[in-house]
Amino acid sequence: MGLIAAKKAAAELENLGAFVACASAAARSAGFGSSRAGEIELAVEEALTNVCKYAGRGAPVQAALACTEDASVFAVELVDDGKPFDPTSLPDPDMNAGIEDRPIGGLGVFLMKRVCDAVRYRREDGRNVLRLEFRKPAGR
Amino acid sequence: MELVQKDIADVVSLNFRGRLDASTAAQAEEAVRGFLGSGGRKLLINLTGLEYISSAGLRVLLIASKGIKANAGKLALCGLSGNVKEVMDISGLTGLFIVAEGEREAAALLAGD
User: Fold this and answer.
1) DSSP type of residue A58
2) CATH value of B2-108 in 3.30.200.20, 3.30.70.120, 1.10.357.10, 3.30.750.24
3) pLDDT tens for residues A92-122?
4) Is the complex ipTM higher than 0.90?
5) Largest CB tally within 10 Å, which of A56, A83, B2, B60?
6) Beta-carbon separation of B54 and A16 below 8 A
């Protein structure tokens, strides 16, 4: 796995755009077109929004993003030192609920899971490590 | 994100352009809440020119939908395309809204009453 791009910053909403832009540029350099790059941006935004909103425990949380690629897979690894949180453990929202019953929010993790080819979570050395994987486009 | 608000007869159209994400959703929410708070009953959310939406943006659409029902009004969306349409579809939200192709058709759906 070769490293394409990396970024570290406080897990604050104001830094989200820079993290997303970093992942998007890396995705494009890995060969993804703008539509799939948009989905990768979405997955990164949703994952990091959760970290920014919920990972804090009084102390500031640091987040790090690393984009890597091999011949077939582009991966975004997100590491934070916040509270343990495994988004892959969350149940999907009720997709049959009418608009009155849709909870406002709760869709982010679902969207993240849907646009990724694989999502893997591990807790390592007191950090959350979330790995988002995307199969690279063929013919490159 | 760029926000263009205009009146089409008795319909208020809010056109969100660019990116409706976690960092811009508050601006969109403020516009929607401003409309709802003034007792508005016919709202058109025009997504023409919107390139990107995340769950933070979807939340604004749900706030609009719930608020317009509380006002006994009507909400229509138009201009869904590309990633925005895809995200709405994945979320299962497209079918929950009145959706029209363009602004003119959407305004027509809201006319009357």
Assistant:
1) S
2) 3.30.750.24
3) 888 777 777 776 556 899 999 999 999 999 9
4) yes
5) B60
6) no
